[in-house]
Design brief:
By secondary structure, the chain is α+β, with helices and mostly antiparallel strands. The chain is 38% helix and 22% strand. The two termini are 24 Å apart.
C-alpha cells in the first residue's frame, strides 16, 4: 500500500475514501495546482534514453508549464542541485544507474516543488550510490524542501530521516521525531560489554552517580547517563576501579529499524 498511498498524495490515484490536503488544498479537487507544489518519483521510473540530460530536463520543465523565458534557468538550477551540470550533453541511456536516479530526481524537482515524494529511491543502487543519494537528500532538505520517502529497507533512512511515520492497516500508529531520538540534548544510552557475567552488576551500575534505567542481560549492560564526555569517562574509571572486566564501553547508536520494531511491538501488545 505504500506506493498506492504516495500516488494518491501525488493526485495520480483517487482514494476510495478520505481526502488529501497539501497546505489546505485538496489535491484531488485541484490536481494541476497541487502538482506545482509536489514532485514525485516512482519506484520504476522511465527516461528518454535518446535524449541528453539537458533535453530531458527541458522536456520535464515544459511539461510542468515553465515559461520559455524561465526554462533555461530552471534547467540549469536543477542540474546544479543534482550535480549533473557536467553531463548535460550526455544521453540518458549512457548514464550509470546512480546518475539515472539523479536525473529522474532532477526532473521531479525541476519546477522547484515544496514537497518531494520518493518511492523506494535507493532501489538497485550500490552502497556508494546510496550514500551519495543520502547526501543529496540532506542537501535538498537544507534548502527547505520536504521529502517524504517510502522504503521497506529502513537502514537506508538512517542518514537523513527526521521523522518516522508508521502505518498499519491504513491507520497511523506512530509519528516519532527521529532527531530527538538520535540527538537527545541531555542524555545518552551506554552499552557495556564484560568478559564474563558480573555478580550484582545491575545494582553496581545503579549505585553510580548519574546513572539510571539500568538493564543487564548476561555480559551486556545498558544504562542511561548524562551526555557529557567527562562524566562518562568518570563512570568508566569507576567500573575499572571496581575490577569490572569491561571490554567495551560505547554510546549505543540510534537505529531506525529497531525504533520501528519497538513501535510495532508496543502497539501490538
Amino acid at each position: 500500500g505504500k506506493t498506492t498511498l504516495l500516488r494518491c498524495m501525488a493526485a495520480l490515484e483517487h482514494p476510495l475514501s478520505g481526502t488529501i490536503r497539501v497546505q489546505s488544498m485538496d489535491v484531488h479537487e485541484c490536481p494541476r495546482e497541487s502538482h506545482r507544489m509536489i514532485g514525485y518519483l516512482s519506484d520504476f521510473f522511465g527516461l528518454y534514453n535518446e535524449l541528453t540530460v539537458r533535453q530531458c530536463l527541458l522536456h520535464a520543465a515544459g511539461a510542468r508549464g515553465i515559461s520559455y523565458e524561465k526554462i533555461e534557468g530552471v534547467v540549469k538550477r536543477a542540474a546544479e542541485r543534482l550535480q549533473l551540470s557536467d553531463r548535460l550533453k550526455v544521453k540518458a541511456g549512457a548514464l550509470s544507474r546512480g546518475l539515472r536516479q539523479r536525473l529522474a530526481i532532477a526532473q521531479a524537482i525541476v519546477h522547484d516543488p515544496e514537497i518531494l515524494l520518493l518511492d523506494e529511491p535507493a532501489s538497485g543502487l550500490d552502497p556508494e550510490a546510496r550514500h551519495s543519494l543520502a547526501e543529496l537528500f540532506l542537501a535538498l532538505r537544507e534548502q527547505g524542501m520536504t521529502l517524504v520517502v517510502s522504503s521497506h529497507i529502513l537502514s537506508e533512512l538512517d542518514e537523513y530521516s527526521t521523522h518516522m511515520l508508521v502505518l498499519k492497516d491504513g491507520r497511523i500508529v506512530d509519528d516519532k521525531s527521529m532527531q530527538l531520538a538520535k540527538h537527545h540534548p541531555e542524555s545518552v544510552t551506554i552499552e557495556v560489554h564484560t568478559v564474563s557475567v558480573v555478580d550484582n552488576f545491575a545494582m553496581i551500575l545503579s549505585q553510580l552517580n548519574g546513572v539510571w534505567d539500568v538493564t543487564v542481560n548476561g555480559t551486556v549492560a545498558e544504562f542511561t547517563c548524562d551526555a557529557d564526555n567527562e562524566k562518562q569517562h568518570e563512570l568508566l574509571r569507576s567500573l575499572i576501579q571496581r575490577d569490572i572486566p569491561v571490554i567495551s564501553f560505547t554510546e549505543k547508536t540510534f537505529n531506525i529499524q529497531q525504533a520501528y520494531l519497538n513501535t510495532v511491538q508496543e502497539k501490538t501488545q
